[in-house]
Amino acid sequence: MPSFLVVGGSRGIGLALVEELLKDPDNFVITTARDLSQSPGLRALTSKYPKDRLVVLVLDLAHRETVERAGEEATTLLPNGLDCLIHNSAINLRPVGPFEEMDLDQLEEELRINTIAPIHALRTFLPLIRKSKAQDRKIIFMSSGLASIENGFFWAGLSEGYSVSKAGLNMVVRKWGAALKQEGIATFALQPGYVDTDMGQGLSSWIQEHAAWVPMMSPNDCAAQCLKVVREVKLEDAVAFYSFEGKREPW
């Protein structure tokens, strides 16, 4: 049974990824949430699927001890290792505004959660990925089109701190992924597009004024397209930055 771990599955894209993965009866899915009681969608899935199909672990990226505890629990749940890790969690504390007005404490928090915490999460779960005997072990970091340095000029004024933190995450993927490829582990960054989530709604006024041509997707449509990319990319394609459409994005 293929095993998946989705870090950050309580709502939005993460919840949709979990729901989409569970449509395949062969998949075993582990996901994480800071507080399951605050996620009615995830609670509904735990009522629908038995524990041999879906398990929810408590994990808060702001508290490293919860990551380590989740790693211990996942080790018990996955005696044969983990086939695919999808890291989805992120924060965007200041959707709109110029650099000169940026709250540096907010920027520090975005860097901590969006860039540094994913390193800790991967370090925690990497032994399980290494243990897996699957031929196509994969690590996927959900990134953003705002992380593209080449295209950054177009999005000036939109989520500046978030953009910096996600560009940092992309460098983690680029460099660590190069090392992991030598072990037969395929690592990718994936930008999900403009999605109708709480975070996406926070960008809507800027998008309508400056990029009205960008369509907003539903989380379910986004998840289906992103998982198609996850299924199709191979080790020889690593390390790359993909869009939800399966096209290579500029770093």
UniProtKB/TrEMBL annotation:
<comment type="similarity">
    <text>Belongs to the short-chain dehydrogenases/reductases (SDR) family.</text>
</comment>
<dbReference type="InterPro" id="IPR020904">
    <property type="entry name" value="Sc_DH/Rdtase_CS"/>
</dbReference>
<protein>
    <recommendedName>
        <fullName>NAD(P)-binding protein</fullName>
    </recommendedName>
</protein>
<dbReference type="InterPro" id="IPR002347">
    <property type="entry name" value="SDR_fam"/>
</dbReference>
<dbReference type="Pfam" id="PF00106">
    <property type="entry name" value="adh_short"/>
</dbReference>
<dbReference type="GO" id="GO:0005737">
    <property type="term" value="C:cytoplasm"/>
</dbReference>
<dbReference type="InterPro" id="IPR051468">
    <property type="entry name" value="Fungal_SecMetab_SDRs"/>
</dbReference>
<dbReference type="GO" id="GO:0016491">
    <property type="term" value="F:oxidoreductase activity"/>
</dbReference>
<keyword id="KW-0560">Oxidoreductase</keyword>
<keyword id="KW-0521">NADP</keyword>
<dbReference type="InterPro" id="IPR036291">
    <property type="entry name" value="NAD(P)-bd_dom_sf"/>
</dbReference>
